Amino acid sequence: MKILITGGAGFIGAHAAKKLIEEKNEIVIVDNLNDYYDVKLKKDRLKIFLAGLKFKFFKADIANYRQLENISAKHKFDCILHLAAQAGVRYSLTNPWIYEKTNVAGTLNLLELAKIHKIKKFVFASSSSVYGGNAKLPFSETDSVDKPLSFYAATKKSCELLAYAYHGLYGIKACGLRFFTVYGPWGRPDMACFKFADLIRKNQPVEIYNFGKMKRDFTYIDDIVAGIASAIKNNFAYEIINLGNSKPEKLERLIFLLEKHLGKFKKKYLPMQAGDVAATWADIEKAGRLLNFNPAVSLEEGIKKFIAWYKNYYNI
Ligand code: UGA
Questions:
Q1: 287: CA distance to ligand 1 center in Å?
Q2: Which atom of ligand 1 is nearest to the CA of 153?
Q3: Which CATH code, of 3.40.50.2000, 3.40.50.720, 3.30.300.130, 1.10.10.10, is assigned to 2-183+218-247+280-297?
Q4: Active-site residue, from 91, 99, 131, 152
Q5: Ligand 1 centre and the CA of 245: distance in Å?
Q6: pLDDT of 23-57, one tens digit each?
Q7: Which of 94, 209, 303 to mutate to test the pocket of ligand 1 (most atoms within 8 A of CB)?
Q8: To bridge 8 with a disulfide, which of 18, 29, 51, 132 should be the other Cys (CB 3.0-4.6 Å)?
Q9: Do 153 and 130 touch, CB atoms closer than 8 A?
């Protein structure tokens, strides 16, 4: 397949690109390389992590339809893997506009591209955050997701709705994957695992929200990528599928595992942050049934792999 990957210099995007290139697909990556976090890390994912692999890269912004049109005019894509997003739950309280521009207008642009260029398959990133403060655990795809706690979550839910409308109107086959707190090598520095490691390296205190009582269904990147590759191979009309480890862990456990590898760190305990969700837990019955999804990497093993990469990348 010829696949357009948006956000291919991002954490999940680069890992997905690697797997899909190795599976002999033809890959075109678009990414705007914005400075939400260290641009060098994004460039290194393309230069070092994807070294020796064949792909085309275009620096383009999904919020700019003309840039996408120029790329699509030169290629005949079979599938769009849409992973570009303004990510991060907490930053959406500070700058909601960038979330609307990238996540809502950007997704609309890609759906228009799919419509106009007759790209039949659209696999896209959604988020566990759409479940908001739902009390029923684990989170199932059949649960109501009408009450987001953050603007980020609201834009992710919007992506699902936009894709549904385009599926109904234009027959685009769409599959939205709700990722649950993904971590691993080449990860995102704004997320807990990477952020904590950075703070320890700089000998600065780690801020721990909700006094460490948060629970997350931390999911290792290789498991997520297996789910993405499987979704691309399928031909669903329209599906929304959870991709999570289905083994929620207390934040305290993540801290314990990081300290095991990096030594004790200074902690500052804080209350719950606005927009944050207290606990996440994926029901993965549907992912197992439709995608043969079977996450294999425990948090302990995944953190070990993350730390090995982190120490090597930062020469520790
Ligand atoms: C993450 C991503 O940031 C989202 O892009 C993604 O959509 C979402 O996962 C998801 O699963 O859908 P989050 O679960 O908040 O959001 O992941 P982290 O930023 O890694 O935070 C994990 C936990 O650590 C949370 O409970 C958070 O409150 C806590 N945390 C984070 C701290 O206690 N201190 C920090 O400085 C950062």
A1: 22
A2: 7
A3: 3.40.50.720
A4: 152
A5: 15
A6: 999 999 999 999 999 999 999 999 999 999 999 99
A7: 209
A8: 29
A9: yes
